[in-house]
Amino acid sequence: MQQKINTESIVDFLKRNPGSSSKEIHENILNTISYATAKRILAKLVSEHFLEVKGKGKGTKYFVSSAYELLRPIDISEYYKKEIDERKIIPDFNFKIITETLLKHQLFNPSEQLKLNELQQKYLENVSQLNANELKKELERLAIDLSWKSSQIEGNTYSLLETERLLKDKETAAGKTKEEAVMLLNHKDALDFIIEHPDYLIPLTVSKIEDIHSLLIKELGIDKNLRKRRVGISGTNYKPLDNEFQIREALLRMCELVNHKENVFEKALLTLVLISYIQPFMDGNKRTARIVSNALLMNHNFCPISFRTVDSVEYKKAMLLFYEQNNISSFKEIFISQFEFAVNTYF
Predict the structure, then answer these.
(1) Nearest by Cα to 63 from 14, 6, 7
(2) CA of 184: how far to CAs of 75, 173, 197, 222, 228, in Å?
(3) What is the pLDDT of residue 5?
(4) Whole-angstrom distance, CA of residue 32 vs CA of residue 23
(5) Residue 128 pLDDT > 60, yes or no?
(6) For residue 122, what are the CA distances in angstroms to 115, 137, 193, 268, 340?
(7) Per-residue pLDDT at 58
(8) Vertex 274: Cα angle to 66 and 117 (nearest 5)
(9) Could you give the CA distance from residue 4 to residue 280 in angstroms, rounded to a whole number?
(10) N or C end: fewer C-beta atoms under 10 angstroms in the chain?
């Protein structure tokens, strides 16, 4: 709690007094702690990308980072205590979040990056001990879990066991619609395509994203290609772009951003969030985002993510938080926890 209070106090002070020194920050708002402790807090906030510095030594000046609103922790349960029309949001699509903020800043702080790197190393060690048949079985297990959870997030009522029977034995579940079965089978087809074409999404392009979307919406009566009409999103007053040319432009800029990033975890997280944010298709956007994100992980020999233990409502809330506030903190937590689950559960 003390760290949270200090962070908010420092940020508020620097918004009013940009370019303040550590001494000025200490004297004005952190005078109940030692100067050395204040300096450590400031250094940590810089490492977490909440603050930026200019100058060196005694000439060091502190500013609120342009990534602060993107990365700052938000209590999501507190946020959603306000009803949809009571929340103060960014109602329109923000091109600058892609072309400036996300291009300039890293998404993971040093401790988060270290954790992800250690998990990835564990994954590589685990996979190195599997033969080809064992690896195939583990990928199949993950594909079933991902197909089930990704479809469940979209309202599919198949259970995990029913999904396994469908994907392994083509046995449909009683009382379920044909569309639900098709949705699940399409997920499996898309994942199989990715496994068979390991470099397909390198580099990422709009046409390749459209190809993955086409696999996912096959025989579901959903329009192919980029949408030409307006869409609304339930649960929020955020309005996605409604101009086909702007939608294509946003998706192009997203691809450039993802291709520019060297950090594979950032590539995967950005794809997950931004395809959903842009809403380039009439339907199937989040499904496409999850498959493309996993394809990027697998294309770079990183552990794929099934999302099996994520709560569907919490997933949607974290996504809506990005829509409304351009804040990625809650979704980043989901990404890290689900990557950890995948490494510790599969392979």
Answers:
(1) 14
(2) 33, 12, 20, 15, 26
(3) 58
(4) 13
(5) yes
(6) 11, 19, 26, 19, 10
(7) 86
(8) 75
(9) 37
(10) N
